[in-house]
Amino acid sequence: MIRYLLVGNEVLSYNSEQGHQMWHDLVPAMRSIERSLKAQNIRQIKIGTPLAMDVLQSTFPPSRGTFRSDVIGSVIVPMLKFLDRTKSFFFIDAYPYFPWSQNPYNISLEFALFKGNYNLRDPGSGLVYTNLLDQMLDSHHPLEPQPDPESQYPPSSSLCLMKTKNQVQI
What we know:
alpha/beta; TIM Barrel; two-stranded parallel sheet; 15% strand; disordered C terminus; hydrolase; glucan endo-1,3-beta-D-glucosidase; Glyco_hydro_17; Glyco_hydro_17_plant
């Protein structure tokens, strides 16, 4: 059974004139697909799009994660409203390898690989992170103040998690 239909792949990472046009076409395409499915009486399939971590302007500490200013108003807010209205998901491609490989001196390999006893405390939230993936996912905290903070936000490639307001379920 098909549960999710994802439109594009990391579209907001395309930084060209053509890419910017795709940014503005993304949410309308998602709406169009939803309408087409409804017209065929298909209502159980959730529509989304996988986004890369670069949709965030800042990710550290996680409690200060912010969306990029070039996409927040024109794409992210309309997309979150669509996802909220359709009870769909925010899909994020989170790969701990990339931040570790770009900064191996400040990010422990054990922290990136879920090994060791390394803990990182977020000074803003007080949360303690034992691995880089959890830290990366929590940097999307700007999602919480949106219309339905109980919505679920699974990453789309690294593993299938469903993140609710206060917990992560595998």
